[in-house]
Amino acid sequence: METFNTSIFPKGEKAPSDYFSGGTAWVHILKPNEENLNCQIGNVIFEPKCRNNWHSHGGGQILIVTSGTGCYQEKGKPVQILNPGDIVNILPGIIHWHGAGPDSEFTHIAINPNTQNGIVEWLQPVTEEEYNNL
């Protein structure tokens, strides 16, 4: 199992288990949401196999992968493998999930723009069957 401890940001707070499964994730908010800029930015670290629930963002989301190997999937589409330097542009309202691969910790910066349209709508967990179909 690969572990990366090279983040320039603090590990952050443990993410709520209501919205993450398969392991532990930590979130460090780099830029809180505010009306003047309507944007929230966070650094998220996932243990191997940890992923978030299916969800969508009213304002869309941008992921910038900084370390490890991860996964991203939109509802009804194949899983994409993510590596450091990858950028994922997620349009508003697209149902998706993201998280670590089975053998690697995974870190990304999550940018939530247009927060006046909603930050996140959480849905059901990604099942073991869905995750294991990687």
From TrEMBL:
Coiled-coil annotated spans: none
Please state every residue range assigned to the domain named Cupin type-2. 44-100
InterPro entries listed in its UniProt record? Cupin_2, HNL-like_cupin, RmlC-like_jellyroll, RmlC_Cupin_sf
- Which Pfam families does the UniProt record give? Cupin_2
Q: What is this protein called?
A: Quercetin dioxygenase-like cupin family protein
- Which source organism? Chryseobacterium sediminis
